[in-house]
Amino acid sequence: MTRAEIFDVVRGNILEVLPDLDPALIEESKSMRDLGANSIDRADILIETMRQFKLSLKVSDFSGITNIGGLVDFLFAKISAR
């Protein structure tokens, strides 16, 4: 799976949880909080993303990630390591 494909999945999950969000606003440099996602929204996005990629991680594993690009990099590393 490519990094771009992972970004597309994350982007789709963000839009699923935040359906009123303009898709053009989803950039790797932004955090989900920047996009208006509260803590429950962010957890929902992470949980659905992990489910789609069949990853079993703790939500706390994501604590040091500050933006969408960091999330994509983290997921890419986890998926590539399988």
Main attributes of the structure:
about 50% helix, mainly alpha, about 80 residues
Compute the average pLDDT. Answer: 97
Regions with pLDDT < 50 over 5+ consecutive residues?
A: none
Stated plainly, the CATH topology is called: Non-ribosomal Peptide Synthetase Peptidyl Carrier Protein, Chain A
Q: Which percent band covers the strand fraction?
A: under 5%
Q: Helix and strand succession? A: HHH
CATH architectural label = Orthogonal Bundle
Structurally, the number of domains stands at 1
CATH superfamily: ACP-like
Largest sheet: none
Q: Rough shape? A: globular
Distance between the termini: 11 Å
Radius of gyration equals 12 Å
In the CATH scheme, the class would be Mainly Alpha
Helix content: 40-55%
Helix/strand structural class: mainly alpha
Q: Number of DSSP strands?
A: 0
Q: In DSSP terms, counting alpha (H) and pi (I) runs of 4 or more, how many helices?
A: 3
Summarize the structure.
This protein has 82 residues and is mainly alpha-helical.
